[in-house]
Amino acid sequence: MVEFLHALLQASQNVFLDPVNIFWICSGTFLGIVIGAIPGLGPALGVAIIIPFTMHMETVPALLFAISIYDGAMYGGSIASILLNTPGDASAAATTLEGFPMSKKGKAIDALMICGVSSSLGGVIGDIIVILFCTVLGSFILLFGTPEYALLGILGVIIVSRVSKGAFYKGIIAGLLGLGVTTIGIGTMSADVRFAFGIWELYEGLPFITVLMGMFGVATMSQLAGEPQRTIATGKITGSRLNGIITALKEWPLIIKSSLIGLFIGAFPGAGGSLANFVAYGEAVRSNPKEKFGEGNPKGLVATESSNNAMIDGALLPTLLFGIPGSGTTAAFLAIMILHGFRWGHSLFTGEGLVILLTIFMALLFSEIIIIVFAFFTARYIGYITTIDKNLIIPFVIIVAALGVFTMRFSFADLAALGIFGFLGFIMNRYGYPIVPAVIGAILGGIIEENFLRSLTLGNGPLIFINPFTNPVSLILVLLIVFILFQPFFSAAKGRLFNKSKSS
After folding, report:
1. Among 171, 382, 396, 489, fewest CB within 10 Å belongs to which?
2. Using CA atoms, how far apart are residues 388 and 398, in angstroms rounded to an integer?
3. What are the residues whose beta carbons fall under 8 Å from the beta carbon of 359, sequence distance 6 or more?
4. Phi, psi of 30 (to 5 degrees)
């Protein structure tokens, strides 16, 4: 407890007293709001696009900048939902159900303030809960060793493949593609050169940042280029800031309930903000049967937005505990951690690691304050963000991605790979293959291989993974992997038998 309180005090000083960190938190939150407000971008692209540039930053400012972008973008997504009826990201989809009708009634500013207050309070609730349970989580991590981390990486890729949008086999193929990228170059624990085809630039392998930037940055911009530009007459944004704030605060029980829903759902890898968004909205509808929804009910906005920002804390838990990013945004955040020499697990819950961990969540608290202030002073003019011409955004993002990738190793081969993976990501989007499993596979592949080979060495063979006496947690993970991997086939076979017996 003494160590925890000391780390919490130091984390508070890092966030609220260090001018450099304050600058990066404010900058990240503002940038995230802008990115989230532009349809087609979203938090995953926002965090991904800054990754190469964080390499030249100190560790703590880089992490705080990234997490603030994530937090700001989650609120920013509500802006486009309210004003354009087009969510800036999938996690703001349910916000359109009540936000846009309120906007048409002349209460756009009310809706924006309700979202700002609800997002902030939801995030604060999630932050406080996670901070208080840090010591408990740290003790739980002691159950995991090298074999468990190898299996957790495999489990993460499979889970995200399973729950991603599209057919299960398409998700698995995407995940295998990402894992395959990590086999290029010199082996992790050997001197063997694999799949380099005599190209010396490939001896060091392909940086996962190149894969991530190509599939998130270039592919997303290619997709955005084919979508129509959406605009709004910003002069028609009307409403009351004060009414919006009062309306949100009156619904404090709903904020607490929805925040807990977002925190809980976010902790499941692959669940994502869209699921938390709709579950919280559905619960608000269920618990208020006498009220009409879908016509501008403020309770719908309160529920969706408070769950959104609390979901961030939940989504960070599997990433920080086990290295299993449940979404594209947490995958990009994990990439920044790895670039700065961080590893998830027990090291983040003791000593200096605990200080940095608490600093991340304290930064989220600070970011929530910035969101409320930003929403209050810009509510009447914030619609201008949604009018930014996509023909300016697309080349800007692609140029930034190319510069970021090139400056990592000053390699033209990396630029070529950026284009290849951008094209591949575009094709995957077109034909329903999810991108997130591929990106997560590219990030975790090297770590999975390293821990897997080390486990084989330590256990003199694969029995180390299924020994119930020495590695019970490992055995549970193996059984879980098998169940998740083959469950669709079992369900399909059961369905065929049921239909056959019914017809006979």
Report:
1. 489
2. 16
3. 10, 11, 14, 15, 21, 60, 63, 64
4. -60, -45
The DSSP-derived string for 44-97 is HHHHHHTHHHHTTS-HHHHHHHHHHHHHHHHHHHHHHHHHHS--SSGGGGGGHH
At position 152, the amino acid (one-letter code) is L
Q: Tokens at residue 70, please?
A: 């994530």
- pLDDT for residue 3 is more than 60: yes
Distance CA 368, CA 319 (A): 21
| Residue 227 to residue 427: CA distance in whole angstroms | 16
Burial environment of residue 411 by CB neighbours within 10 A (0 to 12, 13 to 18, 19 or more)? middle
Determine the longest span between alpha carbons in the chain, in angstroms: 75
18-22, 36-40, 268-272, range with the lowest pLDDT:
268-272
Q: Are 393 and 232 in contact (CB under 8 A)?
A: no
What are the pLDDT digits (tens) for 345-399? 777 777 788 888 899 999 999 999 999 888 888 877 776 776 677 778 888 888 8
Q: What are phi and psi of 186, to 5 degrees?
A: -70, 135
Please, what is the angle between helix 298-322 and helix 96-104, to 10°?
140
CB distance 175 to 158 below 8 Å:
yes
Q: What is the dihedral of CA 285, 288, 289, 291, to 10 degrees?
A: -90
Q: Structure pTM?
A: 0.84
Q: What per-residue confidence (pLDDT) applies to 363?
A: 94
The per-residue pLDDT for 124 is 92
Q: What is the DSSP string of 370-419?
A: HHHHHHHHHTTTGGGGGGS-HHHHHHHHHHHHHHHHHHHH--HHHHHHHH
Contact 6, 352 (CB under 8 A): no
Alpha carbon distances (Å) from 234 to 84, 166, 170, 397: 11, 37, 42, 25
Could you identify the residue written with the tokens 């800031």?
241
Please report, for residues 17, 440, 447, the alpha-carbon distance to residue 331 in angstroms, rounded to integers and kept in the order given.
Answer: 29, 6, 14
